[in-house]
Amino acid sequence: MFVRMKRDIQPLCDRHFSRMQPAAIKLDFGTADDYWIEVYACPESDCGRLYNITHGYFNFRDRMIERDTKKLVGCKNDSLPMFIEAVSDGRAQWRCGQDRCNHTISD
Ligand SMILES: [Zn+2]
Ligand SMILES: [Zn+2]
Questions:
Q1: Contact indicator for 35, 26 with CB cutoff of 8 Å
Q2: How far is the CA of 69 from the centre of ligand 2 (A)?
Q3: Ligand 2 centre and the CA of 62: distance in Å?
Q4: Does pTM top 0.85 for this prediction?
Q5: Which of 22, 58, 68, 80 has the fewest CB atoms within 10 Å around its CB?
Q6: Which positions ≥6 away from 32 have C-beta within 8 Å?
Q7: Where does 9-63 show beta strands of DSSP type E?
Q8: Mean pLDDT throughout 70-82?
Q9: What CA–CA distance (Å, rounded) separates 40 from 60?
Q10: pLDDT digit string (tens) for 11-65?
């Protein structure tokens, strides 16, 4: 299956429920190749939460993903990480981030 993040999504931070902004981060695997990934970033200072279709929600430090900060809610159709699209009555509405998959859940 080809993994491709939906275009024009507006994920909310899983901690602040703030609307995340498109960004790109550079991962460091110790090679000469720069490896950029598209992410969405929480705008709150001192938060640093990011979301993307490969890793779900995570924090990033020293050009590395902090493994114990990952939060991955998998879509039941394709197991890819979902994002919070809206919050109503304290319940998060999750939507799959994979292009062309429209699976949603509320927790
Ligand atoms: Zn946040
Ligand atoms: Zn899906």
A1: yes
A2: 22
A3: 30
A4: yes
A5: 68
A6: none
A7: 21-27, 35-41, 50-52, 56-61
A8: 97
A9: 12
A10: 999 999 999 999 999 887 777 777 888 999 999 999 999 999 999 999 998 888 8
